[in-house]
Design goal:
It is a single chain. It is built from four helices and 17 strands. By secondary structure, the protein is mostly beta strands. The strands form four sheets. The protein has a six-stranded antiparallel beta sheet, with no helix packed on it.
């Protein structure tokens, strides 16, 4: 129920033994749910509530504006819902809802804890799994930590068919758990079949930055993927020459209570994103950097040593799982998120299938 160690994937087969020994090319950790609410300080800053529901994790300074001129996640947060206690970044994605084929009502699909690479479970309550990764090809592994105020998004919420979006995919869990993300077992759309162990959504962010702009009007142009592919290589284009740690989310949706054969007929499936997307192609993610001082750089520099091996990274300060789980905050605009049944999606988004 997780991205099994990259040492076993085809793209890294030639380095399998070394990867297994040194912990690979990534830091991996769980972040529990901070809040579920209609807020999006990147796309609709100041709007309360925003058009659709999000699931948010990270530092509890999260608010509807998050202006870098007036807010510092590190100093303005009193806790973080993430494993590493020096990480006050915010990570958020759209929520998923089950739409009843029987009466058209909606219920939010809960997130569940992801698996550990050693076969256990990450200690988290809902939320998502975060990766920070260095290059998976080439020899230059050096990355440069983002700067305070840095933010970005990836994905296209307007898509209703497979497009040119990089690094967005869904996996039907229970039909081959391990392996690299967004491979042949994954689909851009929601799986149109029963997934015995739920659905894993993956969001891979760009790994190259222009080195100047902390944001851009579309929240994307200041970053790009290396070579146009999802997982980072060791080179960046001249327009975006700075190689930053590549951020990736895994969101584990616990769909088991909705696994009825009558919901999956004639290629149809019953799930819809909170912005009305019943295809899944429009999945997207938002990121706001908030690591304390040079902590992230310290962790990335320690990768491949006994000071940092994926989920075990002594180079970074950790907190007990119970403390991360306890870091929550109330909704800024209180409303029913859909833990029970709703007659419409929060915000009234219209459901579209194409």
């Amino acid at each position: 129920m997780f991205w099994s160690t990259l040492a076993t994937t085809a793209i890294l087969a030639h380095r399998a033994a070394a990867q297994a020994a040194n912990g690979g090319d990534f830091i991996r950790f769980g972040c529990s749910q901070l809040v579920v609410e209609r807020a999006d300080p990147l796309v609709t800053p100041g709007m309360a509530p925003s058009p659709h529901m999000h699931q948010i994790v990270g530092g509890n300074s999260f608010n509807i504006t998050m202006s870098p001129k007036s807010l510092d996640p590190v100093t303005d947060s009193s806790c973080t819902s993430c494993t590493f206690s020096e990480d006050f970044s915010n990570y958020w994605t759209a929520s998923v809802y089950f739409k009843s084929p029987e009466n058209g009502s909606y219920k939010r699909v809960p997130q569940m804890a992801n698996g550990r690479l050693d076969g256990g479970k990450l200690e988290q309550d809902g939320g998502l799994t975060v990766y920070y990764m260095r290059a998976f090809s080439g020899t230059n592994k050096k990355t440069t930590q983002m700067k305070p105020g840095f933010r970005m998004m990836t994905g296209d919420p307007s898509l209703r068919k497979k497009g040119k979006v990089t690094g967005i995919c869904h996996r039907c869990m229970g039909n081959g758990e391990g392996g690299a993300p967004c491979d042949s077992r994954d689909t851009s759309e929601f799986p149109a079949k029963i997934c015995p162990n739920g659905i894993r959504a993956t969001i891979i962010f760009p790994s190259c930055w222009d080195g100047v702009n902390l944001d851009s009007p579309d929240h994307m142009s200041h970053v790009t993927y290396s070579g146009g592919t999802g997982l980072a290589g060791d080179k960046c284009p001249s327009t975006h020459p700075v190689r930053i740690p590549q951020v990736m989310y895994e969101i584990m949706y616990d769909t088991k209570q909705f696994n009825k054969a009558e919901y999956f007929k004639n290629g149809k499936q019953p799930f819809v994103y909170s912005f009305g997307d019943a295809t899944g192609h429009g999945q997207h993610g938002d990121y706001l950097f908030g690591w304390k001082d040079n902590a992230l750089q310290r962790g990335m520099d320690a990768l491949g040593t006994n000071q940092c091996a994926s989920e075990s990274c002594p180079a970074l300060k950790s907190q007990p799982g119970k403390d991360a789980i306890a870091c929550t905050k109330p909704q800024q605009v209180p409303e029913d998120v859909g833990n029970g049944w709703l007659t419409e999606l929060p915000g009234g988004a219209a459901v579209t299938y194409a």
